[in-house]
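Much of what follows relies on a compact textual record of a protein's fold. Think of the row as the fold of the chain written in a discrete alphabet. An example makes this concrete, so a full record is given next.


***
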Amino acid sequence: MAPHALKHSAPASLGFDGQSEAVRQLRDRLEACLPSLDALMLCGEAGSGRTRAARYLWVQSAQPGRFVPVIDRLSFEEALADQAGCLFIGEVGLVEPGLQASLLALLCNKPANERPVVICTSSWTPARLVQDRRMDEALATLLSRHCVTVPAMRERHDDMGALCAVWAEQNGGDAVFHPDCAAWLAQQDWPGNFRQIRQLLSHAAQSRMGGVVTAARLAALHRVDTTADAASFQGLLARYLPSMLDLESDVQGSLHARVLAEVERPLFRLVLRATEGNQIRAAALLGINRNTLRKRLQLLGIETGRTRS
């Protein structure tokens, strides 16, 4: 296969037109929701494309009105006053309780034909949110009626070649990825899912110094610990944060909360491992009280074991 083959096989968009079994099943589930699109929950890992799936659903529904991201009760009320067509609430289990209460009241008190469509995303299922006391059971019941899981990157290896082609086009159309890139990407573990891969490919395209980007070049760039700057915390953040700035699909105004969550999870897990799960010692090491630590662990969905000294 010629090195430019990936570039010429690019699909029309980065929607859900891949050919992996996982994305075909996802597309079928999304399309099954279209005839009676009302209140929907999209579950899955961060970076897996939940926001893109929400936009895809709204566009495919061809319903009137705007797709409006909602981040708090104020923006919720403004969207209703503006007669938005679709309210989008990212990580609904992490939003303020007042917003959840307003959402529940809307779904219970108004018929579907008199209110906007509601699409929420979550890293956890409605049942898990109730279990962790991050959502009222009544709201979880309403959202669980139509709950669709968006597959992680590890389940979409067959789409990697097409995705490389699209990203090549998005980087100005002149970047060319060798066919071995797709195979190499499919072998990696991507905890950041699509955002992490897009950032790597963007970096490779911008720094290729002419010629074709190969798997070897991607591997070299992926080793973030090869330089002192990249190995530093600041260096890691500088490389990772741009992958979170997807201005096309991300919810505006939620970046600060998402970055804090991404930093807190590995920090708390590291401290809990170091203290063998002792939350009293972990809280002392972090400089916070035990109740605050317990609340943050529940909010972030971090499982804990031992809690006493």
Notes: Residues 1-14, 225-230, 247-251 have pLDDT under 50 and may be disordered. The chain has 16 helices and five strands.
